[in-house]
Amino acid sequence: MKPKSYFKGILVILGIVLVAAALVAGASKATFTSTEKAAYADERTVNFVRPGLVMKVTKAEIAADNTIRAWIKLTDPQGLPLDRLGIDTPGVITLSFLVAYIPANATQYVSYITRQRTSGANTATQATGENTGTWQKVAEGEYLYTFAAKAPSTIDRTLTHTIGIYGSRNLTEFDLGTNRGDAWLDFVPNGSAVTKVRDVVRTASCNKCHDQLAFHGGNRRSVLICNMCHTPQSTDPASGNTIDMKVMVHKIHMGSSLPSVVAKGRYFIGNADYSTIVNPSPVMDCGACHEAQSKTGATQANNHLTQPSRAACGSCHDNINWTTGENHRAGPATNDDRCSNCHRATSESDFDASVSGAHTVPQRSNLLKGLQTDIVAADNIVPGGKAVITFTIKNNAGEPVPPASLGTMRLYMGGPNVDVTSYVREDAKAATDLGNGRYRYTFTAPIPDTMRGSMQFGIEAYRTVTLLEGTAKQRSVREAAVFKVIPVSADGSPTQARRAVVSTAKCQACHSQFGFHGGNRNTVESCTFCHTPSLYAEGESWNFPTFIHRFHEEARYPGVLSNCNQCHINNSQFLPLPDSRLPTVTGQAPTTTMPPMSNACLSCHNTDTAKSHAAANTNQYGESCAVCHGPNSSYSVAKVHAQ
To answer: Which of 420, 441, 530, 596 could pair with 431 as two cysteines, CB 3.0-4.6 Å apart?
Structure first.
């Protein structure tokens, strides 16, 4: 038998729904994106449940007896109140609380709540949170939480304090998953205005790669919440490593590039070994995470430039011995007072000792003159003909660059654009000079007699440049032009570019210096010439969708693998795929070829069960995948990948 509170709750819910229905009906579905489960739920269920969790700390105080209190508000995305107990509104809400302050002589938090963690014979202190305090309901969706922990008697009431909350709303019984969120409030206990904060990197910068920052079960979703526990006072007992945010994050992202790891060491925290991490961006590209204030709004976005320290710098350069001065040209450093004397914020020259100069990504050096190419014309494009390509090569100043002066200068020809079945590339260093940086080259290989529809041509060029020659900073840099691709009709039919599945811009969200095979193949379009359905080696397919999916699944991908939109554009992950696509040659028995839809899906869902399912739905007439997984089907690609 259901308890009376259950039926009372249902009556209250029905009353709320009747009042709220006019506000949310019709509009609620539009609130959710295609990556959320609620976008595919029955409208009546959505209007009843009101999925989502928005939390806010509206007020905080530390009383005279050092009791810590926080007033919070819990609503759905439309602003309607939620019951934390899940009685008056669906879904129990579980919350945890943090409280910390920033000392007058420091820039990072110190938590009032700590715990002792033990691993083997080692014990360490860690900042933490709590959920054992007392609750008082103030109004619908509004609560007063009184911390179990109290502020110490030594509290300085003039300092910035922060209350942080994080938690979840369980809607799994409605097939709407678990809604998560966090929030915080800065305040000064004596009532003064907040003038000091910790705001170096914003969550949006992390989410370029991490899709949705979510750790320790998924509820910690903001950098600020991370900062409140990952303080200098916190240590991992298993490794003895600090889990101070600025040190830990640098070392994790450096991973396999850490000098200590290169020297056959390990970097780990608890049971997690980060020694194999390969950062998708150059490790010296501080700006990949430390984005400018003008872009993110972070008030301390320049801290990495203006506040160098042994802890922050030594987290990446972890072979420096600050006591002896080993691997530190300036010798021993007993404090951080003089760091900025040598390591100024900005550089007078790339690769100097300034923070920005020392972290110059070589391919972006201002000392390079630049290399720009373009295909301006493609003539004699007929089956059996020899294509004549007119192209340009210039530096950033618009000055001509002779093809013969380059390390590589190649033109690509491939097609058809539905699925490339053949391609050639030819050295074009001996192209005819037409003057003013224009050149002409005739392919020696003819266009295949069987070519129909559209095909594509590409241009690739790089040169090796010696920078700062004769100085201690001399270095060789490969300077590559952006790989350009143009579509051309081979038979007079309308020109059709190869379908756009992913974009270079989306790749660059994580791979800030995008480029492979030496950096010359630096656009998505360049990959499509070689990585065709027929490309395989040693029993592995190197077809573009196959190996890209496989790489991102096998690597320690920082985002949510089921969020296809993080890489795909134009809903290109949706089924069905174009009928004219070719099967992928796998080279693996018993299935030596794989039809296109099965191949795309099985490159991630690579279990025997999934393979059997795909095979059972494929016959001599083709694949029936789209019957169940089409855009409007019960198990559409978007729906089954939603979160």
So the answer is: 441
How far is the C-alpha of 110 from the C-alpha of 132, rounded, in Å?
A: 20
| CA 593 distance to own-chain centroid | 33
Give me the residue spans of the domains in the chain: 4-234, 247-360, 361-499, 531-643
User: pLDDT by residue (tens digit) across 94-121?
Assistant: 999 999 999 999 999 999 999 999 999 9
The contacts of residue 17 (CB under 8 Å, 6+ apart) are: 47, 48
In contact, 613 and 584? CB cutoff 8 Å: no
Nearest to 36 by CA among 21, 26, 48, 51: 51
Contact 456, 485 (CB under 8 A): yes
Each residue's pLDDT tens digit, 247-259: 999 999 999 999 9
Q: How far apart are the first and last CA of the chain?
A: 33
**Among 394, 441, 373, 393, CA closest to 413:** 441
Count of other CB atoms within 10 angstroms of residue 469: 10
| Dist CA 541 CA 200 (whole Å) | 43
Q: Which CATH superfamily is domain 361-499 in?
A: Macroglobulin (MG2) domain (2.60.40.1930)
Counting every residue written for the chain, the total comes to 643
Q: What is the pTM of this model?
A: 0.90
- d(CA 614, CA 636) in angstroms, rounded, equals 15
Which residue from 231, 230, 234, 213 is spatially nearest to 222, judged by alpha carbons? 213
Cα gap 530→544, rounded to integer Å: 9
For residue 212, give both structure tokens.
């949705």
The contacts of residue 202 (CB under 8 Å, 6+ apart) are 223, 291, 296, 297, 298
